[in-house]
Design brief:
Helix content is 43%, strand content 24%. The protein has 189 residues and is an alpha+beta fold.
């Protein structure tokens, strides 16, 4: 399931965005091809690992967001607040990438004017907190057949950490969705 989580729509859209760049901006298109290649390679390599550092995970997220920025241009604002003390902590692979992709796919892509994705990673009282806030609303009964990202994330957290980790998905009153994962730090290194 982890390997199949890379949304086929994302792949299709990324390749179309790159194709549009080939004549317009060859240098940027080569960079985008490298980023897509990195995502695919890392998805295959990391899916075989039980854990990776947040630093490695963020490299995948960065490549993913750069490709989405090509597609959405000014319709996508990216905000990151990463506590550097968290970079060497370990988490299940593609955890953050899956949740960021979910925020863009189910939130920002549905909005005519686009929106923002805010990724915050911090520590508080020996708890690793990964929070993604994105523009949009949760639409009940809108999970597609490929919508396994959140379900898979919850199951992976449960299998790895039992009741020690938590996952929440909240529809905020200000037209944002807040996704939050909390993992005890002693389980992340």
């Amino acid at each position: 399931n982890l390997r199949s989580q890379l949304n086929p729509h994302f792949m299709f859209n990324a390749m179309n965005s790159i194709r549009a760049l080939v004549d317009e901006n060859p240098v940027q298109s080569k960079k985008a091809i490298t980023q897509l290649s990195n995502i695919l390679r890392n998805a295959l390599v990391y899916s075989k690992s039980e854990e990776i550092t947040i630093k490695k995970e963020l490299a995948v997220v960065e490549d993913y967001l750069n490709l989405e920025k090509i597609r959405y241009e000014e319709r996508l604002e990216i905000i990151k607040n990463i506590d550097s003390d968290c970079l060497e902590l370990k988490i299940p692979p593609l955890l953050i990438q899956t949740l960021v992709e979910n925020g863009i796919k189910h939130g920002i892509s549905k909005l005519m004017k686009g929106g923002f994705i805010n990724l915050t990673i911090s520590k508080e009282n020996k708890i690793l907190i990964i929070r993604i806030i994105n523009s949009g609303k949760i639409v009940e009964n809108s999970i597609s057949e490929t919508g396994i990202g959140v379900k898979n994330t919850i199951k992976r957290l449960e299998l790895k950490y039992g009741k020690k980790a938590s996952f929440s998905l909240i529809d905020s009153k200000d037209n944002t969705v807040i996704t939050e994962v909390k993992i005890p730090i002693e389980n992340t290194n």
